[in-house]
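Hi R.,

As promised on Friday, here is the backbone we talked about, encoded as structure tokens. Could you run it through your design pipeline when you get a chance and send me back a sequence?
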């Protein structure tokens, strides 16, 4: 019985850690945690009304994702990305993703492409429902699964890393104005072109989509952030 209680305790701690990590990701996306600022685990724990341990563990998870970086004896700094960085990341993604879309259009079967349609529709649904975390997660899955059809695992890893380095922060105001929906719908447009076998149009669509995403980054960075209610694990 002692072992069972210990396992139950560990499971509960892991769930709390996951809840905190999810809440922190939501705060990042909303712009409540600002790039360049340092936040301590005890300070964030006080906001959540919990101990510092699960917050520290959750922040270490975010550090592994490239969202924050540990600062010795202070806490965690929210990763800051410059305009130059964003331009370079976008250029690199275009150099990889645009020709890869052309290759996948030639090689993938209709069945393989159609398997991605539920994910593309999920992106649009999340944008319309103002679910930013769901939107970003579905967007990541769509792009990486699509690239995976080219059969190059290193390519997928490279784009995955570029996406982590160019995370979208402060999207709440853009989301509230419905500005993410048109970008979301481009995934369905892209998929339709690929299913139709129109390689050139699919490549043009991907290039346009990446340019659209870059403009959203610029707008998100310029948006003022209004004071938000105290963070809780139940309000994510």
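Update: got your reply. Pasting your designed sequence below so it's all in one thread:
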């Amino acid at each position: 019985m002692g072992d069972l209680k210990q396992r139950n305790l560990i499971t509960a701690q892991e769930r709390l850690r996951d809840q905190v990590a999810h809440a922190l990701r939501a705060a990042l996306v909303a712009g409540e945690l600002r790039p360049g600022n340092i936040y301590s685990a005890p300070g964030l724990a006080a906001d959540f009304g919990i101990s510092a341990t699960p917050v520290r563990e959750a922040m270490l998870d975010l550090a592994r994702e490239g969202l924050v970086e540990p600062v010795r004896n202070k806490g965690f700094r929210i990763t800051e990305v410059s305009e130059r960085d964003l331009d370079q990341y976008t250029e690199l993604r275009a150099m990889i993703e645009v020709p890869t879309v052309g290759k996948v259009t030639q090689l993938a079967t209709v069945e393989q492409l159609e398997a991605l349609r539920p994910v593309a529709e999920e992106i649009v649904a999340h944008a319309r429902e103002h679910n930013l975390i769901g939107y970003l997660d579905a967007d990541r899955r769509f792009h990486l699964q699509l690239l995976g059809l080219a059969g190059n695992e290193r390519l997928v890893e490279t784009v995955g890393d570029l996406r982590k380095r160019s995370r979208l922060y402060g999207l709440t105001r853009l989301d509230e104005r419905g500005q993410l929906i048109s970008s979301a719908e481009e995934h369905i447009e892209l998929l339709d072109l690929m299913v139709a076998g129109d390689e050139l149009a699919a490549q043009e669509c991907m290039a346009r989509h990446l340019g659209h995403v870059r403009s959203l980054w610029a707008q998100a960075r310029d948006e003022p952030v209004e004071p938000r209610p105290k963070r809780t694990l139940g309000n994510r």
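One thing I noticed while checking it: DSSP finds eleven helices and three strands in the chain.

Thanks again,
M.
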